[in-house]
From TrEMBL:
High-level lineage: Eukaryota, Metazoa, Ecdysozoa, Nematoda, Chromadorea
Disordered: annotated span: 814-833
This protein's name: 3'-5' exonuclease domain-containing protein
Pfam families for this protein: DNA_pol_A_exo1, Mut7-C
Gene Ontology terms for molecular function: 3'-5' exonuclease activity; nucleic acid binding
Any one GO BP annotation for this protein: nucleobase-containing compound metabolic process
Organism whose genome encodes this protein: Acrobeloides nanus
Length: 1043
């Protein structure tokens, strides 16, 4: 049926629509479209008469009337107001002042002053109360007096009911209360045509400022909505909701026609004013207004207009006003189709961001499943990943569908071997190409890297199985092989480690084996390719032709390779045998290393460490080429006399979750057992990825764990602590375990096995010793640091503060809906350094450097700040320091070579790379300091490290944006005009709306700037006209500004 309908009509209905048509025909015998009639008015003449009869009886409360008539309280209120024209008044009674009252008040005050002079407790014996009515039968009435006035059709006011019966009117007359005015006077009433005419008159009136126009328009709209709602029963008076829809259509393009620019402020005023009007009416009355009968075309047209609102916050209001809830219900088919039509219009106009908001808000992802790749790549293009994450939240099938789609984009023509090119996609769609080719390096490799980065990111986030992204995993394996070969050639890993990793990765994987041989042969490494081909028994069918030719033409080399293969196989057998043999960390057979790979051995470890005071903890991970997730392979536990290597790879196959929980509870959650780690939050994260149930114990683990990296980060912030731990050092070393072991313990760690394959079994002896040494050093480092701090610092509060601030905090990334993107123009909330913080920092550093002969003023320092820490460079400019910000490493090197007196501020590995190139000129910000400390602490560290004294007069002597030291002072009208012109070129919902009339007024003010009005600030504004535009220049005392 859908196919036949599509052949006859250009627009094909959606499948759910066809099903609903069939269901409606079976149910009603017709597929005729329902109209948009709203619910009937509940104020029937019968109910109004019953209400009038009820209220004629005195002392009848609203709740009692509702109970007797079987109506709701809201209905009674509505009939009183709309049907019987009652209006509630809040009355205030004032006593009439007589001629002698002022004199009496003076006498009264003087008498009380005399009482106070003689008796200090006079006022304590006085009691003051609010007005109340005391009845003889003992009751007290403290309620306010309310009066309901009935407005008759002739305009006369009649008393209907009151809280005190017929004596109320007499009471007010005796008290001197004047007559009560009507709520709305006839002059204030605005019908539809009058409202339009008045709004246009306000908009075109040049005597109004922008803010005054907005206020007058909103007031006019409020009055109009109140009138058409109050008197909608009159002839030719439409209700508030129909009037709202017509006003939107009337003023949709009004500002564009009048001001000549696309300005939607008028429809925003109408929409927001009507929304606030509904909120003031209460839920019941608002629902009755929204169910007034309207024309179908007006409703559709208005929905189209409000769909152009850019702020995502309007969607809730649109849903409320247009009653768009429960679109999936059968009775909402027509409204659903209109919403779908709106979204299609947005997509066709390339308004993807608004379309995504509409689809996600109304949960219509399944209907637009074919547009999913297009929407996703748009979000990637504008770097708005949270938007697509919210779009696909809790929709696993759609998440899996997007991952499969992206996985198929991998282009295998990047890799060696013609047989991989058949896996490559033929072409990219325009939106794919636009995203994948934005980088400067427009190559197949760059596109693959971009696709894989996104795929793996969301596969981890959404828990997508690796078998669902086979092409990405295959490409990841290929790239990992290339990366390991590069490390091997550059001496970063040993040949044994390289061979073990390659063998483990290519076992029983013909695609990876074929790529390995193609890559090695293509690079001329025939001996290594032949060695691995024979060792892995790779079939000749997948050997490259060049490798076959090499084997045929080099028989001598082939014999040598075969001998190497035999030796390697023998080495592997020896490793399997040594795996179960005990080895030692040091050559004199001290400090034994035990491999723990059975349940009995693990229980023995628990008994051994349970009564200890301190252990060292380290974790080795599986290679990244084997999995997209961080999975632990080996857990090292070092005591003062031995090291245990917990074989997670093997134990996972034989232990139950109960066995693992027993181990972690008795070792890691043991409060009296102090566990020392380095960057322990990373190890803890990997353990939780490996054992997800461990997250519920993370607080217990962190409570008794100590991270050495965090301690050192706090030490470098405290001058006395730094001098105690690193005596003789002017600047702190890099915060890695190898550097700290060398500087504090004089132990040089061999890191050649750091990137080894820790998932292979058996482990080599070199791997065991490397893993044991890392855990062993942690205990020695901790004890030595504590010893130096106790010797160098006598104040225990400082030491306790360092250890408290370095405590481990692990925050799990919760899978919660990502925040919606900020509306266009809205800035991210920043936390700059306050003036009080800056004053405290510079004063503290000045005091420390007061007797230091090497201390410098800001005028003596010129800095180049690496692009990784540009935010610190801007704050240094704020202090008056000459600071150059660079965008990349090449620009930094070029500038440093040209300016020989400049110093460089960087961090991480860049410090080790730049230090040999610029001796004595490079300073480092510790990595952990940048990640975990506030901006104020970072600035304090830099000022102390560079020995810079900052004074108050140095503040704001440089521009934070351009580093200049000269500023141009201009009068206020120039700033106002520049701001106004800037706002008019943007579409910012949160800023005031200016028109060309406002701009003309501001420009006229530029011609009459008097120095006397602005503190003697002289400024001359010059206008230069050419054929196309008018150029405005402000000539000031310290420079010129092109306005």
């Amino acid at each position: 049926m859908q196919k036949e309908t599509g052949e006859r009509f250009p627009k094909i209905p959606a499948k759910p629509t066809l099903y609903k048509w069939v269901h409606q025909f079976d149910k009603t015998g017709s597929v005729h479209k329902k109209g948009y009639e709203r619910a009937m008015n509940q104020r029937t003449p019968k109910k109004i008469d019953a209400m009038k009869a009820a209220i004629n009886r005195k002392r009848m409360a609203v709740r009692r009337v509702a109970s007797e008539l079987g109506m709701k309280n809201d209905s009674v209120h509505r009939i009183l107001k709309k049907g019987l024209r009652f209006h509630p008044y809040k009355l205030q009674t004032l006593q009439k002042l007589e001629e002698d009252d002022p004199e009496k008040r003076v006498v009264f005050a003087e008498e009380h002053l005399e009482h106070m002079e003689h008796d200090q407790n006079f006022f304590k014996n006085l009691f003051f109360s609010d007005e109340a009515h005391f009845h003889l039968h003992g009751s007290v009435n403290t309620a306010d007096l309310n009066l309901l006035i009935l407005m008759s059709e002739s305009g006369e006011e009649e008393e209907a009911a009151s809280s005190s019966g017929s004596g109320v009117e007499k009471y007010f007359n005796e008290a001197g209360v004047e007559s009560i005015s009507k709520v709305l006077s006839e002059e204030d009433l605005l019908e539809y045509d009058e409202c339009i005419e008045k709004i246009k008159k306000i908009s075109e009136d040049s005597d109004y400022t922008g803010e005054e126009k907005a206020a007058a328009i909103i007031k006019t709209l409020q009055t109009h909505f109140e009138y058409v709602d109050e008197y909608r029963d009159r002839e030719k008076v439409i209700g508030a909701f129909p009037s709202f829809l017509k006003l939107l259509a009337e003023f949709e393009n009004y500002n564009k026609i009048y001001t000549g620019r696309d300005d939607s402020s008028m429809v925003h005023h109408i929409f927001n004013t009507f929304y606030e009007f509904l909120k003031d009416q209460g839920d019941y009355c608002a629902d009755e207004i929204l169910y007034q009968q309207v024309h179908e075309q007006d409703w559709k047209n208005s929905l189209r207009i409000v769909s152009n609102f850019k702020a995502s916050t309007y969607l809730d209001r649109i849903e409320y006003i247009f009653q768009l809830k429960n679109l999936q219900c059968e009775d909402s088919e027509d409204i659903l189709n209109e919403v779908v039509e709106v979204i299609h219009r947005l997509l066709n106009a390339s308004e993807y961001e608004r379309a995504i908001h509409w689809i996600a808000h109304f949960k219509l992802q399944e209907i637009f499943i074919d547009r999913l790749p297009e929407l996703a790549f748009y979000c990637f293009q504008i770097s708005n990943r949270p938007l697509i994450e919210r779009y696909l939240l809790d929709r696993y099938e759609l998440q899996e569908r997007l991952m499969t789609y992206m996985d198929n984009l991998i282009d295998f023509s990047e890799f060696h071997g013609a047989h991989y090119k058949s896996l490559s996609p033929k072409t990219f769609t325009p939106f794919e190409w636009k995203y994948l080719t934005t980088d400067i390096e427009n190559t197949i490799r760059a596109r693959n890297d971009k696709i894989m980065k996104l795929t793996f990111r969301y596969a981890r986030k959404w828990d997508i199985k690796e078998e669902n992204i086979p092409y990405s995993m295959l490409a990841r394996a290929f790239k990992f092989i290339v990366y390991k070969h590069y490390d091997f050639l550059n001496g970063h890993i040993s040949e044994q480690s390289y061979d073990d990793t390659v063998i483990h990765m290519t076992e029983e994987k013909e695609e990876v084996q074929g790529f390995l041989l193609e890559y090695l042969s293509g690079g001329g490494y025939y001996m290594k390719a032949l060695f691995l081909a024979l060792l892995l028994n790779i079939p000749d069918a997948i050997w490259p032709s060049s490798l076959k030719s090499f084997e045929y033409s080099h028989p001598v080399d082939v014999l040598k390779v075969k001998e190497d293969v035999q030796m390697k196989r023998q080495t592997i057998e020896d490793q399997r045998r040594q795996h179960y043999e005990q080895c030692y960390l040091f050559e004199n057979n001290t400090y034994p290393i035990y491999m723990i790979d059975t349940k009995d051995l693990l229980n023995a470890v628990i008994e051994d460490v349970f009564d200890l005071e301190i252990v060292g903890i380290d974790v080795e991970w599986r290679p990244s080429g084997l999995s997209i997730r961080e999975i632990a392979a080996l857990l090292q536990i070092a005591t003062t006399s031995t090291v245990y290597l917990i074989d997670i790879v093997k134990l996972e196959k034989i232990l139950t979750q109960e066995d693992w929980e027993n181990f972690f509870m008795k070792v890691f959650c043991h409060r009296d057992l102090k566990k020392i780690g380095f960057a322990f939050h990373n190890d803890l994260r990997v353990l939780i990825h490996t054992f997800p149930w461990l997250k519920k114990h993370v607080d217990q683990i962190a409570a008794s764990s100590i991270c050495l990296q965090s301690i050192i980060s706090q030490v470098v912030l405290n001058h006395a602590a730094f001098k105690s731990v690193f005596p003789g050092y002017d600047r702190p070393p890099q915060l890695n375990l190898a550097e700290l072991s060398r500087n504090i313990l004089d132990i040089r760690l061999d890191k050649s096995e750091q990137q080894g394959n820790w998932a292979q079994r058996p482990l080599r002896v070199e791997q065991k010793k490397y893993a044991a040494m890392d855990a062993h050093c942690l205990i020695k480092l901790y004890k030595e640091i504590c010893k130096r701090l106790e010797m160098g610092i006598k104040d225990l509060e400082i030491i306790n503060g360092i250890f408290y601030a370095s405590r481990i905090t692990y925050t799990e990334k919760k899978h919660i809906p990502p925040p919606l993107p900020r509306p266009k123009g809205e800035k991210r909330e920043k936390q700059p350094i306050t003036d009080q913080e800056l004053d405290g920092i510079v004063k503290k550093i000045r005091d420390e450097l007061s007797y230091d002969s090497d201390a410098r003023r800001v005028q003596d320092v010129q800095l180049i700040v690496d692009n990784m820490i540009n935010h610190i460079g801007k704050e240094l400019r704020n202090c008056g320091i000459h600071t150059t910000l660079v965008s990349n490493r090449a620009q930094l090197i070029e500038h440093a070579n040209r300016k020989k007196k400049t110093e460089i501020l960087t961090m991480g590995k860049a410090y080790d790379q730049l230090r040999p190139m610029f001796p004595g000129r490079v300073h480092s910000l510790p990595v952990n300091l940048s990640a975990n400390q506030s901006k104020a602490q970072q600035i304090e560290f830099v000022l102390r490290e560079l020995k810079i004294k900052v004074y108050e007069e140095d503040y704001f002597t440089r521009c934070m944006k351009c580093n200049a030291t000269q500023f141009v002072n201009v009068p206020g009208p120039i700033i106002k005009y520049m701001f106004m012109r800037y706002i008019m070129t943007k579409d910012l919902d949160f800023m005031p709306k200016y028109t060309t009339v406002d701009a003309k007024e501001a420009r006229k003010a530029l011609q009459h700037i008097s120095a006397a009005d602005y503190g003697g600030l002289k400024c001359e504004v010059k206008f230069f006209k050419d054929e196309e535009m008018t150029l405005i220049t402000a000539v000031c005392e310290h420079g010129n500004i092109d306005i």
